[in-house]
Write a structure and sequence with these properties.
Layout lengths: L9 H5 L11 H18 L3 H10 L10 H12 L5 H12 L12 H12 L3 H14 L24 H7 L11 H25 L4
Length: 207
């Protein structure tokens, strides 16, 4: 962990994630923190803001439609007493980190948080997280996905981990902002594509 000034500590944040599922638990937060620090240091971002944003980015719960905005407001409340400009920078990063809400990160620190969060959604860990959610919903391990699928069934029993890969995970590499994150994403994306291709062949008895 990089030694920088901090607005909030790991231990102060841990209790805020006790109710989260395996894909969005405190281990996810720590992975995003490590990636955000790595990317932020390489890109010259303000690591104090990056660190606080990473630690608080999912405190808004898992309401897909609003969790980033809710999290931003909660961060403002949690960090009250710190310099207002820094608090707002943290809140704005959190407000624009969500793929679902389609808000564009405007600052380097917001881009770093977005990239770190999306990197944790691809690669081997991305596959594991997709199936953690799929398991909670008791969904099948594999299902055919229409070539023109645009997430119509997202949030329903028809949207399996394979659908999530086609609709979202396979596209995340192209949404990243920083050169550092894009470089990290290449291998993670490749692994994930190969995994789902092999899964389909094994399901069909071809391997």
């Amino acid at each position: 962990m990089i030694d920088v000034e901090t607005m909030i500590t790991v231990e102060e944040v841990r209790r805020l994630y006790l109710e989260n599922d395996a894909a969005h638990d405190f281990d996810h937060v720590l992975r995003v923190l490590a990636l955000a620090e790595r990317i932020g240091q390489a890109e010259g971002a303000d690591l104090e803001i990056v660190r606080a944003a990473a630690l608080l980015h999912d405190v808004g719960g898992r309401d897909r439609a609003r969790h980033a905005r809710i999290g931003a407001q909660r961060a403002r409340e949690i960090l009250r007493g710190h310099p207002p400009a820094k608090v707002e920078a943290v809140a704005q990063a959190i407000a624009t980190h969500s793929f679902s809400e389609k808000s564009t990160p405007q600052t380097l620190e917001a881009q770093v948080l977005y990239d770190a969060d999306k990197l944790d959604a691809i690669g081997a860990i991305g596959v594991a997280r997709a199936y953690a959610i799929s398991g909670l919903m008791k969904l099948p391990l594999w299902a055919p996905v229409p070539a023109d699928y645009q997430g119509e069934a997202r949030g329903t029993p028809e949207h399996t981990a394979v659908h999530e890969f086609v609709f979202k995970l396979s596209r995340l590499k192209e949404t990243l902002f920083t050169p550092t994150a894009k470089a990290i994403a290449e291998e993670r994306h490749r692994f994930m594509v190969e995994f789902f291709a092999r899964l389909e062949r094994e399901v069909k008895g071809e391997l």
